[in-house]
Amino acid sequence: MTASRYLFTSESVSMGHPDKVSDQISDAVLDFCLAADPMSRVACETLVTTDLAVVAGEITTKANLTREAVDKLVRDVIREIGYVAKDRAEAEEIGFTADSCQVDCRIHAQSPHISQGVDTGGAGDQGMMFGFACNETNSLMPLPIHLAHRLVERHSEMRAAGTLGWLRPDAKSQVTVEYNADGTPHRIHTVVLSTQHTRAVMTRRGDTDYFTDDARQQVIDQLLLPVLKAERADLIRGKMVMVVPGTKPALGPDDIACHINPTGCFLQGGPHGDSGLTGRKIIVDTYGGRGRHGGGAFSGKDPTKVDRSAAYMCRYIAKNIVRAGLARECEVQLSYAIGYPDPLNIWVNTNGTAKVAEAKLVDLIREHFKLTPKGIIETLDLRRPIYRNSARNGHFGRERPEFTWEATPVAKALAAAAGV
Length: 420
Hints:
This protein is an alpha+beta fold. It has 12 helices and 14 strands.
């Protein structure tokens, strides 16, 4: 790497990661409530650990949210993620399965003092939210987090299809990209993929279990390389080189170092290997560390909670600005006071890439976007059961029909108004 270049890294986690298990359960409860009652007020938190899922929170809804209903929702999510066992011995080894875990439901009604302000159109909480977009990828996401998401997404697809029969649901990816001095991607530098696995790909050396090098090569050949080629073949400038734990391989100047299960073994994983909580993967959920984060989590929250809805609007605004060609990258901040409808501030940062003054962009945002909680909900049509899929593989960067915050219908009007 030359002195004029630099590295940036982002990570993602699979749908089977314990924190993502919690996020998906919380959003499944939210979707269940919104499907029956679009005006539901939901703040749902989930904790998962060995053979236990605890669902708690403040929920006011007309949905039939009985303990039996919550129990079924939780087990359906766990089953879809892939925590299932063919027999009792496998269930004990996994330590957390859809059929074996206990479900503890601790839900009560939302505080009437919150409703006081929200019922009149105010924000459901105070706070500041950020959104980001850049032209590094077709999705207008930063490249490292985009690639990291695609790797764990492919991991889940391969596990579900049985392509690599020894995969289990828990996994983490990490991608380091080498950038040119002008901020454009130069090459893919390093990839890390840790995956939970069965005993089928373990070998014994002395008193210690290890993941086999043959399995590492399968991950490189069947998971990493196809994803990277499909996404950015032009940034694969050298060979994919396996890094065996405890060794330092000879790497060419453009080779990609591939760390597969670098601890040596990953048999015990998921909620049995580490507890999970809703909202603990906020950087994975957003931009992988590019741009700022206001600190508020998304999953389990209905759209009156500006932690979620205003963050979606910030992404929507930033993406429309970049798509309009007004800047190569754009970061937007909105802030709110609980019970008050209008944002307290609008802030824009384009890192010097804007074609018009940033003050002009603020004026365009005020003119073209509805920024009250009511306006955000109406613009993005957020009172629908659309959230469970957002709780895995990132809330941003996937142009699914229900993810309205990824659309760019305002781009043409912005470009025209700016005279670009």
